[in-house]
Every structure is written in C-alpha cells, then in structure tokens.
Amino acid sequence: MTQLAVQNLTYRHGPEVALTFPSFEVGKGEQLALIGPSGAGKTTLLHLIAGLLRPESGQIRFDGQIISALSESGRDAYRARSVGYVFQDFHLMPGYSALENVLLGLGLSGMRGPQARERAAEVLSELGLGARLRHTPRQLSTGERQRVALARAVAHRPALLLADEPTAHLDRARGVQALKLLQDTAAVLGVTLIVVTHDPLVMDAFGRLIEVGAVAPHRSPEQTLVLA
Predict the structure, then answer these.
(1) Which of the four, 55, 93, 144, 181, has the lowest number of CB atoms within 10 Å?
(2) What angle do CA 31, 34, 40 make, to 5 degrees?
(3) Which of residues 132 and 15 earns the better pLDDT score?
(4) Which intervals hold domain ABC transporter (predicted)?
(5) Which domains does the chain have, with CATH numbers?
(6) pLDDT tens-place string over residues 53-87
(7) What pLDDT, on a 0 to 100 scale, did the predictor assign at position 139?
(8) Helices (H) and strands (E) in the chain — how many of each?
(9) Which residues contact 117 (CB under 8 A, 6 or more apart)?
(10) Statement: residue 89 has pLDDT above 50
(11) Do the beta carbons of residue 143 and residue 128 sit within 8 Å?
C-alpha cells in the first residue's frame, strides 16, 4: 500500500535554477536511498518531502493528504506528527545536553513534562547513550552526536524517517555501524526510511535506489535497482 507519492515535482532556486524530480511511490515500512550527482537536488527533494520547502509545481501525498498544498503551519504540523529528520550536520543545540536536545524535539511534537523526559531517556538508552544523557555535543564523539540526532528524530514515533548523508562525517567502520543502527531502528519501529547519499557503502545497503538529476532520454526517470 502506498504511503508516500511524489508526482511531477519542480522547485526553483532563485530565477535561474529550476530542479525537476522523478515521480515515485513508497510503501509503508520501505527503505530506499536517493542518489545522484552533487547539485542534482537530492537534499532539496528530502526537504520537500519533509515539508521544509514547498514545490513550485507537482504534488507530494502522504497517507492520503496532499502535503505540498498545505500552508506553512500545516506543514509544520505534518512534520511534528509524522516526520523524523536526521540532518547531515545533526543541528544539535551546542549548549544543551543530549537529553535536552531530544526533549526539544519532543516539545515540537507536543510532548512535555515527565512523560517527555522518560521517553527521551528511554530512546537515548536504546541507542547506547544511557551514560551520556547529561553530556553536551562538544563532549560527545561524532558517532554519538549522530545517535543523539537519531534519538531526537524518532522519539516522537514518526511514520517517516529521513536522513541526509548519514555516513558523511564517519570513517568506513563507523559508517557501517551508523547505517546499521539507522536501518535497524527504522525496522524495529516499522517506519519508512529515505536517505540521501553519494556513498557506495550506503547504496549497497539498500535494495531500492532512486536517481535524482539529469536523466538520459532512453532511461526511465526512476532507476530502481535490485541488489544481490
């Protein structure tokens, strides 16, 4: 059953640059990667799916609701309810502890007080950070900061998890660990996972790849690859 449908999207960066995106559908619980050359608009497409940007034309539908037609406040509500986002640079508040960073995310989704603190501590502990709750980002390794960002993204139990270049700041060994953690977390929670990547390591881990960018005339706009 289709959970997310992206249809005929275009987005304009200023008067000069217009981006056109492939149309595709994603089923509930599916995991896929958006790939393509630098500047093709992969992160822009992820932002459009998250409701952080609004397309110039085309449609994004999630669970039957046309997200691209919503007002800014409507897209904010959609994101708070249904979307978890792990940014490439994590976007953690530097003066806040790991626990407080996750609490900020829960607050945006409407969860506060003792219940929120319990949920934040639980998710961080599940991701191996139970002993690091009071540490600030500066006191954490890159991998630990990424896990805090993941905890913040999933603590409100979203239906859709988005991650931008999840292995960009990690060496190969830590990249493998981070990717497994991301995929395993999505699978355990039963959420749909879409990542942006140019890393062959990440591409090899996904059974479905969607190519974003210029498409040759003899190729389909969506390149779906089944990997052995």
Answers:
(1) 93
(2) 170
(3) 132
(4) 4-228
(5) 2-211 (3.40.50.300)
(6) 999 999 999 999 999 999 999 999 999 999 999 99
(7) 98
(8) 7, 10
(9) 99, 103
(10) yes
(11) no
Alpha helices in the chain (DSSP H): 42-50, 72-82, 98-108, 113-126, 142-154, 172-189, 200-205
Which amino acid is residue 51, in one-letter code?
G
Give the pair of three-digit tokens for residue 53. Answer: 């940007």
| Whole-number pLDDT of residue 170 | 86
Q: What rounded mean pLDDT belongs to the chain? A: 91
The amino acid sitting at 213 is G
Please check whether residue 51 is in contact with residue 70, taking contact to mean a CB–CB distance below 8 angstroms. yes
- Run of H or E including 192: strand 192-196
Sheet strands side by side (includes 31-35): 83-86, 160-164, 192-196, 31-35, 209-211
